[in-house]
Amino acid sequence: GVAWFGGAHDSHPGNDVVLLDVATPVWVPDTIGPDVPAGTDPWYDAITVGEGRNVTDPSGTEPGVLLAGRPWTLHSNQDYCYWPSRNVLFLCTGSGVWFYHLDTRTWELRATEQQHGRDWRATGGAIFCDETRDRILLVVKQGQVSARGVYLWNDDTLHWDALVSTVPTLQERLYGAYDSFRDMYYLLSYDKDLKELWEINLATLAW
Predict the structure, then answer these.
(1) Beta carbons of 63 and 55 less than 8 angstroms apart
(2) Alpha carbon distance 6, 186 (integer Å)
């Protein structure tokens, strides 16, 4: 099947997870729906701490967890990936690292931003699962130059470990595809005037 979390800007500001049963095919909605429903006008009135940050109350004054104990983020397509061995959606936002357990359809805050030691979220790059090595990798392109690189999620220490300290200059939008047969990750980097396709060798992490 297919699992889809969240949305983008005002096209769909929600934080619900919908599942597609490919055999049917029917979309199965979230059990409790989005905390910020579609059609909220303006939608950002409900969330005022900024992109990638979450709130603990309707006033939106405190970074943390959203109203129903679930994360929220903009540009969610760059924030999460599927981790097959755990059967979870792995999400990295400004509030921390989250697991969405597909068997119970529940969220678990795995590590806060302070615990995992990084002050960025995945929207600054691209996140994916290297299924051959059963690991989560994150390409960071924004923020301070020293933070750019390729990082490995260590689920024992609940921390991001730096693997590669440099990455090419990447554009605003990133979309990736994992190829287990070739042991490669393909990353499309594009903006209005420039489109580039990068290959990452997952055995060596060479670009």
Answers:
(1) yes
(2) 23
Q: Provide the 10 A C-beta neighbour count for residue 178.
A: 19
Q: Are strands 195-201 and 184-190 parallel, antiparallel or unpaired?
A: antiparallel
Q: By three-state DSSP, how is residue 44 classified?
A: helix
Rounded Cα distance between 117 and 30, Å, is 31
Separation of alpha carbons 156 and 116, rounded Å? 11
User: Binning pLDDT at 50, 70 and 90, where does residue 54 land?
Assistant: very low
DSSP-derived secondary structure for 87-150: TEEEEEETTEEEEEETTTTEEEEEEEHHHHT-S--GGGEEEEEETTTTEEEEEE-SSSGGG-EE
CB 90 within 8 A of CB 102: no
Q: What is the pLDDT of residues 116-153, one digit of tens each?
A: 666 555 556 788 999 999 999 998 876 555 577 899 99
This model's pTM is above 0.85: no
DSSP 29: P
Rounded-to-integer distance, Cα 33 and Cα 68, Å? 10
